[in-house]
Amino acid sequence: MTLDRFYPIFDDVDWLHRMLPLGVKLVQLRIKDQPGQIVADQVAQARDLCREHGTTLIVNDYWQAAIDTGCDWVHLGQEDLDDADIAAIRRAGIKLGISTHDRGELDRALALEPDYVALGPVYPTKLKQMKWHRQGLEKVSEWKGLIGDLPLVAIGGMSVERAAGAFEAGADIVSVVTDITWNDDPENRVRDWLKATR
């Protein structure tokens, strides 16, 4: 199955109610600092919404909730890998995306045979303070050369205007957060993204 080239990330299922009807076909639910029951409820709601709209749902971090609710994809950061039961994820038939920032992390990710690799931040990001500075488009090209046919996700500081450069550098998918969620008109911004990536 080929993943869509446009990969927005949202922190609440409410966003999915707004954005999936516009034609979003790949989405990540990245919930932070919520009790387990709220996470489980949100993941189950997101699963149902995505099935209804023919959208691929990727659950960030909460791999057990993804298994429990029968989701198809999980995304794990490097810290998440320390605690995740990769064997259980794979036994459940769940596909796996992994964040990377440097060669050591890429080697660790590739050893787990992920279904995609994410590289970031390609540009400076407003979302969180990171110890990694801008990776740049050169790193996107380098990563693509290293991972071959495996899908490469470019994330961090991405905007509609920067998407073409990321694709030219070798990214297969561009992931975006604040360019949509901090926009004055998020729905219109998603429409712009869909035009730029289809």
Automatic annotation (TrEMBL):
GO cellular component, one term: cytoplasm
Family matches, as Gene3D superfamilies: Aldolase class I
Residue ranges of every copy of the Thiamine phosphate synthase/TenI domain listed in the record: 12-180
Any one Gene Ontology BP term: thiamine biosynthetic process
Alphabetic keyword roster: Magnesium, Metal-binding, Thiamine biosynthesis, Transferase
Cofactor(s) demanded: Mg(2+)
GO molecular function: metal ion binding; thiamine-phosphate diphosphorylase activity
Top enzyme class: transferase
EC number(s) on file: 2.5.1.3
Catalytic activity: 4-methyl-5-(2-phosphooxyethyl)-thiazole + 4-amino-2-methyl-5-(diphosphooxymethyl)pyrimidine + H(+) = thiamine phosphate + diphosphate; 2-(2-carboxy-4-methylthiazol-5-yl)ethyl phosphate + 4-amino-2-methyl-5-(diphosphooxymethyl)pyrimidine + 2 H(+) = thiamine phosphate + CO2 + diphosphate; 2-[(2R,5Z)-2-carboxy-4-methylthiazol-5(2H)-ylidene]ethyl phosphate + 4-amino-2-methyl-5-(diphosphooxymethyl)pyrimidine + 2 H(+) = thiamine phosphate + CO2 + diphosphate
InterPro entries, per database record: Aldolase_TIM (IPR013785), ThiamineP_synth_sf (IPR036206), ThiamineP_synth_TenI (IPR022998), TMP_synthase (IPR034291)
Keyword Nucleotide-binding: no
Pathway(s) per entry: Cofactor biosynthesis; thiamine diphosphate biosynthesis; thiamine phosphate from 4-amino-2-methyl-5-diphosphomethylpyrimidine and 4-methyl-5-(2-phosphoethyl)-thiazole: step 1/1
One Pfam family per UniProt: TMP-TENI
Keyword Transferase tagged: yes
Family assignment from sequence similarity: Belongs to the thiamine-phosphate synthase family.
UniProt name for this protein: Thiamine-phosphate synthase
Species in which this protein is naturally found: Roseovarius pacificus
